[in-house]
């Protein structure tokens, strides 16, 4: 399968690096992420940029993102495409000659390049967008125009554009279209995508564990709804950033605000092909809600795909649908899984996921690539590259 290179840096936007990175891995691509002056295994800090009613985006600390390759050792000829996330990192990366040289190489070979939000500042500095149709975060418009590009207004903010080998988007809400156009630029063929998926979430759901699966599946053309008890379409839930920072358990920081897409009271298992249950702290209280539990039971009785990750399995245990099943979860949930009558599968490594019949389980957000792959396979979607 094709190989994709990501150029990232400190305070790249949290979603804008992880959603496309894990989505592409889940689709079956290979991907590496590099940062100048850093090596494989080093981390970059990410920033959460959100829209909270101010005149510009707010910023909070995000997850730590682990690099997979050493910048000084990568060769552009080893990769088929380039992705540049946004955030604040592109401001300083656009002054790095080694970054600009790498970007120019991809353009000289006419390989697919996908850039989002402030990532286009790097393209402008590399002098590769003159005469091209380009969008970006709206505040980047003066730079994009000064670089000789034709500005494409991102109206709505979810709009993306493709100009030959170049895909550009304005911000992380555009990821579904961004991923879809990137697959097109890569020559990918995606079939059997007319699927509907329901995601069951709540306040302080883990930030990645709700957004990555949602946008990854939307990028394939799936219809995805996200609901929360006692809330309606357009309401928001708060998310939590759970990370592994050397403590005996995960740390927590505030995440993005996530907008719901449907009314909980109006959904039923009959209208969907699969159910996804993210983790975080939300499952603790959702497992007390009888309407939530009955919804889970309805999907299980109908023998539809149920995919749950991390602490999401607390809800499955409370619903009584795990007895006799083989599954995993976040390791601290193991006693709950065993008490529910399931056979525990050790998530070693933590990225490991498992399928038992219609049940898909994972241990934590590092497992998203496998988690997404299992869901796509279970729903019969095929992804191939010419």
TrEMBL record:
Record Gene3D superfamilies: 3.40.50.880
Protein origin, superkingdom: Eukaryota
Molecular functions per Gene Ontology: glyoxalase III activity
Domain DJ-1/PfpI, first and last residues per copy: 2-179, 195-377
Pfam families in UniProt: DJ-1_PfpI
UniProt-listed GO biological process terms: guanine deglycation
InterPro entries: C56_PfpI-like, Class_I_gatase-like, DJ-1/PfpI
PROSITE patterns noted in UniProt: PEPTIDASE_C56_PFPI
Family: Belongs to the peptidase C56 family.
Protein name: Putative DJ-1 family protein
């Amino acid at each position: 399968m094709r190989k994709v290179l990501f150029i990232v840096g400190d305070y790249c936007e949290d979603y804008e690096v992880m959603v496309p990175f894990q989505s592409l891995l889940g689709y079956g691509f290979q991907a590496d992420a590099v940062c100048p002056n850093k090596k494989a295994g080093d981390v970059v800090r990410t920033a959460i940029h959100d829209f909270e009613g101010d005149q510009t985006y707010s910023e909070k600390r995000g997850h730590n993102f682990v690099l997979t390759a050493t910048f000084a050792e990568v060769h552009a000829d080893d990769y088929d495409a380039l992705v540049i996330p946004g955030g604040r990192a592109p401001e300083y990366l656009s002054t790095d000659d080694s970054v600009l040289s790498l970007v120019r190489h991809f353009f000289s070979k006419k390989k697919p390049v996908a850039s989002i939000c402030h990532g286009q500042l790097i393209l402008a500095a590399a002098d590769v967008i003159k005469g091209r149709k380009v969008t970006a975060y709206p505040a980047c418009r003066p730079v994009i125009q000064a670089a000789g590009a034709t500005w494409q207004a991102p109206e709505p903010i979810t709009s993306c554009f493709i100009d030959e080998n170049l895909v550009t988007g304005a911000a992380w809400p555009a990821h579904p279209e961004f991923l879809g156009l990137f697959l097109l630029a890569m020559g990918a063929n995606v079939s059997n995508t007319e699927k509907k998926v329901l995601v069951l979430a709540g306040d302080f759901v883990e930030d990645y564990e709700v957004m990555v699966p949602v946008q990854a599946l939307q990028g394939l053309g799936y219809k995805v709804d996200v609901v929360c008890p006692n809330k309606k379409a357009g309401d928001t839930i708060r998310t939590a950033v759970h990370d592994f920072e050397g403590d005996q358990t995960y740390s927590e920081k505030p995440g993005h605000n996530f907008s719901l897409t449907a009314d909980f009271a109006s959904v039923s298992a009959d209208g969907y092909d699969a159910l996804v249950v993210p983790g975080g702290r939300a499952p603790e209280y959702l497992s007390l809600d009888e309407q939530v539990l009955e919804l889970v039971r309805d999907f299980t009785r109908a023998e539809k795909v149920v995919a749950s990750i991390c602490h999401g399995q607390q809800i499955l245990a409370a619903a009584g649908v795990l007895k006799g099943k083989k599954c995993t979860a976040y390791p601290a949930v193991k006693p709950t899984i065993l008490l529910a009558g399931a056979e525990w599968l050790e998530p070693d490594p933590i990225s490991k996921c498992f399928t038992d019949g219609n049940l898909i389980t994972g241990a934590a957000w590092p497992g998203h690539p496998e988690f997404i792959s299992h869901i796509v396979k279970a729903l019969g979607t095929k992804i191939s590259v010419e």
